[in-house]
Amino acid sequence: MRALAGIVLALALASPASAATVARTTPEAGPVLAGPEVLWGSEGSDGSVRVMAGAPGRPPRLLHRIAAPTGEETTRGIGPLAASPDTYAVRVPTSTLFDRDFDSLSYVGEDALLRGPLSGGASLLFGSLPERVDHRPCEGRYEVLGGFAVDGARFAVGSEYGPCVMTEQGQSRLAIAVHDGGSRLVVEAGTGTVPFEVRLAGRFLAWVSANRELVVHDLESGATVARIRARDLGARTISGFDLQADGAVAVAYWRLRWRGSRLGALIPGRPGVQLLDRHVSGELALAGGRVLYERTLDDAYRRTELVLRSLAGGPRHALAHLGERRALAGPLDLDATRATWAVDRGAHRPGRIVLREL
Q1: Residue 7 to residue 339: CA distance in whole angstroms
Q2: How far is 308 from 285, CA to CA, in rounded Å?
């Protein structure tokens, strides 16, 4: 009896895994997992932008800072941000005001994609970081940044490109450049325009173009493994997706008459898309056969919860409950043992970046 009582007491005192605070801030980019740390992007009051790294129980550290542009009426932003245990990549847009009307402002912009080691610093992978963006007509050909992803030490960079004057023969096209050490493989992704989101995991590359079509591509064979259109799912748009190294995909899809999006899984060896849940926001992350997503609890998104669930189905495990004064801020990220997200607590209270052991 004494031994049994001791076991009961130990179980009573054991606490479940809890969410630890990484930083008291609302990030402009991220948070994302990067090895033992969490990365996020922030905008400084001096006009600079920064990539920060942190972990519970220690002060954040600066990975890289980009100074404010010196050009007149010019600002920089930051995000999105992607990372792995080896490296990170971040978009830094520069915008210049070129016209001011009585009821509107017009800007011209240019994107930079930076990559860097987790020890700090960064180099340019795409685009440029001008001090001022010139407003000039397009000449000949253009190329703009789309989505991007990181897997290990590899980068996948999506872009839209084409002639400045469109014709039936010359249309906008989409492509993804996969950078692996000194090699560069370009995968053509058909005609289309941004938005153009990209994921990279193991031998697989996945993308969603114009929020309407999901494609999974095998980099080793060069074959298209899956092609799912929103209309195939009875939906209007694809509102979120993620990819894992075995080619499995979690996908959220939406139509107006639904309360939020629906969540499905595309699993190798199983036909079609398996329905996992309803009433989700579209924010999701996939790793180790489990998907982390935001699920709404009412029609107006006043109450939501962050849920972890197996791709094979089974029970939902709620990791956090959110509301009007504790709203999700930015993306979710997940690996085999941890999850991270950020909470916005309103204009007059600092946000919170969270790391949860699973």
Answers
A1: 30
A2: 10
- Enter the tokens of residue 287: 């790793």
pLDDT tens across the length of the chain (358 residues): 444 444 333 333 333 467 899 999 999 999 999 999 999 999 999 999 999 999 999 999 999 999 999 999 999 999 999 999 999 999 999 999 988 887 888 899 999 999 999 999 999 999 999 999 998 888 889 999 999 999 999 999 999 999 988 766 678 999 999 999 989 999 999 988 888 899 999 999 999 999 999 999 999 999 999 999 999 999 999 999 999 999 999 999 998 777 889 999 999 988 889 999 999 998 999 999 999 999 998 877 789 999 999 998 889 999 999 987 889 999 999 999 999 999 998 888 889 999 999 9
CA–CA gap between residue 348 and residue 14 (Å, rounded): 35
Scan for tokens 């325009």, then name that residue: 193
pTM over 0.90: yes
Residue owning tokens 């996020």: 40
Yes or no: say if 64 and 51 are a contact pair by the CB < 8 Å rule: yes
Per-residue b or e along 18-53, where b marks 16 or more CB atoms closer than 10 Å to that residue's CB: ebeebbebbbbbbbbbbeebbbbbbbeeeeebbbbb
Sequence-ordered list of residues with C-beta below 8 angstroms from that of 60, at least 6 positions apart, any chain: 22, 23, 52, 53, 54
Token output for 277: 């849940």
Contact (Cβ atoms closer than 8 angstroms) between residue 196 and residue 208: yes
Q: Which helix (H) or strand (E) holds 8?
A: helix 2-13
Give the span between the Cα atoms of 325 and 341, in whole angstroms. Answer: 15
Q: Which of 143, 134, 127 is nearest to 72 (CA)?
A: 134
Number of neighbours of residue 109 by Cβ within 10 angstroms: 14
Q: HSE of 239 in the Cβ direction (CA atoms, 13 Å)? A: 23
CA distances (Å), origin 116, targets 44, 55, 153, 282, 302: 20, 19, 10, 29, 38
Q: What is the bridge-based pairing of β-strands 274-287 and 261-266?
A: antiparallel
